[in-house]
Each structure stands twice: as structure tokens, then as C-alpha cells.
Design goal:
Elements: H1 2-5, E1 9-13, E2 17-21, E3 23-29, E4 33-38, E5 41-56, E6 61-74, H2 80-84
Antiparallel strand pairs: 1-2, 2-6, 3-4, 4-5, 5-6
Length: 86
């Protein structure tokens, strides 16, 4: 898995063009959001007028156009008891 993490790349140009490497699947998309799986982690990208221009599952590359406002990576959270009793 460590090897996959090194292949991740995210590039946004002028908040209007997105290029991403390491994408495993496109879980859902609309003009307001892209839901992706990148190296086992869920990624949500929100904005306006989002349009996927290219996706190659074999290479894991994705490009999209639109106006991008927010990118969220959903990592697993540490259980509450482990955070309290360090």
C-alpha cells in the first residue's frame, strides 16, 4: 500500500482544471461533486459545473473541468477511547 501512496498526485490549475493520478474508482459524480477512491481513501471534490474530461482506470488518471471549491480526504478516525487514553 505504501507504494500506491507515492503514486498519488493532485494538480489544480486556476481552480478550473483538475488532474489527478492514483484514482482507483469514480464512485459518483454530478455537476456539483466528484466522489473518488484514491489509494483506498475516499475523496470528495465539490464545486460548480464539474465535468469529467478523461478517466483511465488502467493508469489511474483523471482530468476534469469546472470550478473547484473544496477537496476532502476521508481518513479513518481514531476511536474516541484511544484518543482520550493515549
Amino acid at each position: 500500500m505504501e507504494n500506491q501512496l507515492n503514486n498519488d498526485k493532485l494538480e489544480i490549475t486556476g481552480r478550473k482544471r483538475l488532474a489527478m493520478c492514483g484514482v482507483e474508482t469514480v464512485d459518483g459524480f454530478s455537476e456539483q461533486a466528484l466522489n473518488l477512491t484514491v489509494s483506498g481513501m475516499k475523496v470528495k471534490i465539490t464545486g460548480e459545473k464539474i465535468k469529467i474530461t478523461a478517466f483511465n482506470k488502467a493508469t489511474g488518471t483523471l482530468t476534469a473541468d469546472g470550478i473547484f471549491n473544496e477537496i476532502k480526504y476521508n481518513a479513518k478516525k481514531t476511536p474516541l477511547l484511544k484518543r482520550i487514553f493515549k
